[in-house]
Amino acid sequence: MSPYKGQTGLKRILNATGFSMAGLRAAYVGEAAFRQLVLINVLLIPLAFYFDVSQVERALMIGVCLILLIVELLNSAIEAAIDRISLDIHPLSKNAKDMGSAAQFIALCLIGVVWGLILLG
């Protein structure tokens, strides 16, 4: 076992949960885009229960909404890591941030495609 690893067992799970909650809190407080996407989820997820769709379709509709939040968390983490390294303008830093933004754009498109296919199909 690595001496750099933390706790094991239940203590590890509790620590990981605390770290995850801290990450969600940091994203909500510090990232306007994350707050906007939470609002989209607060609107869309209950709306998924309004439509007369199968359970699998409803799960897909909700799942793609949650993927949007996951991608935004990863995008924000990439941006924070790049900014931690340097605030200087560098082509590789720009590429990393742009790719994170592109991932978020694709996740937004995924919501449109999945919801459109289910509701219009």
Features:
Helix Hairpins, 121 residues, mainly alpha, kinase, cell membrane, metal-binding, DAGK
Q: What is the CATH architecture annotation of the largest domain? A: Orthogonal Bundle
CA-based shape: globular
* Average of pLDDT: 94
Low-confidence stretches: none
* Biggest beta sheet summary: none
- Give the proportion of residues in helices: over 70%
Give the DSSP E fraction (strand runs of 2 or more residues): under 5%
Helix-and-strand structural type:
mainly alpha
CATH class of the largest domain: Mainly Alpha
GO biological process, one term: phosphatidic acid biosynthetic process
Pfam family, one: DAGK_prokar
Membrane topology: Multi-pass membrane protein
Subcellular location: Cell inner membrane
Describe this structure in words.
This protein has 121 residues and is an all-alpha fold. Helix content is 84%, strand content 0%. It is globular. It is a multi-pass membrane protein. ATP binds at residues 12, 31, 79, 97-98.
Task: Give the helix/strand layout.
Elements: H1 9-30, H2 32-50, H3 55-85, H4 91-120
Helix pairs in contact: 1-2, 2-3, 3-4
